[in-house]
Amino acid sequence: MAATSVDICNKALSLIGARGYLTALADKSREAEECTLWYDHVVDMVQQAAWWPELRTSANLTIAATRNFNLGWTALDPIPGYHYLFQLPVDFLRARYLESYARFELGHYAGAAPPETTLYLSTDLKNPILVYSRKDLLVDRWSPQMVEAVTATLAAYLVKPLKGDDRESAQYFQKAQYLVQKARAQETPNLQMLESLPPTLQARGHLIKTYNSYYYPVGAFKAGGAL
């Protein structure tokens, strides 16, 4: 049987020793109300907090605007300093890096409708390929470590309103932080700087030059409303 958000909520409720369990998030109970209130927030926070392998995907980006440097900058141009502005994929959650490791920035675009709700990517690359984390609400596709991290984080948010226990909330969040930090550490070997030097230059005695590669930072993972 496929795992669902209700299963995650019931695991979190079991962790904190709650009396009631859910058959659906629409149940008429205090437990269901609190799970509905916090579930999406917790999933979003955990999935952005580390570069989970199961969320990794890539996409060519669709151009939205090009900067003409012969004219003054306007709000319809890319972020100042960049040539091109691109739309992000519909399943975009958090950027990781461009295939070429070039620098980029994310921001809102005045030409969008509505402009304040959609992020766009600005870069100097004309045809960028973005490696990013996609938002995934299908629990069956999550790794056991992500399931455990979401469950522990949700428990941290539920235990205070359902049991009034700040200390227990801190304990669950500490466990979740450990799981997120572990996921970050597991991805670290893939985030090394690129080193290259043509053989002809090596033969002349030149040293290897290290090129800085740009990676977008992971999301913050803080207790927020849990404590």
Can you characterise this structure?
This protein has 227 residues and is an alpha+beta fold. The chain has two domains: 132 residues, no CATH class; 79 residues, no CATH class. 34% of the residues lie in helices and 19% in strands. It is built from five helices and nine strands. The chain has a four-stranded antiparallel beta sheet with strand order 2-3-6-5, with no helix packed on it. Strands 1-7-4 form a three-stranded antiparallel beta sheet, covered by helices on one side. Strands 8-9 form a two-stranded antiparallel ribbon. The mean pLDDT is 88.
How much helix, percentage-wise, in residues?
25-40%
What proportion strand?
Answer: 15-25%
Instruction: Pick out the low-confidence regions.
Output: none
Number of helices: 5
**H/E topology pattern:** HHEEEEEEEHHEHE
Distance between the termini: 34 Å
Mean pLDDT: 88
Calculate Rg over CA atoms. Answer: 22 Å
Shape: elongated
Structural class: alpha+beta
Question: How many structural domains?
Answer: 2
Q: Order of strands side by side in the largest beta sheet?
A: 2-3-6-5
How many distinct beta strands? 9
Q: What kind of sheet is the major sheet? A: 4 strands, antiparallel
Topology, please?
Blueprint: H1 5-15, H2 30-49, E1 56-60, E2 62-66, E3 84-87, E4 92-98, E5 104-108, E6 119-123, E7 129-134, H3 144-163, H4 166-187, E8 194-196, H5 199-203, E9 209-211
Antiparallel strand pairs: 1-7, 2-3, 3-6, 4-7, 5-6, 8-9
Helix pairs in contact: 1-3, 2-3, 3-4
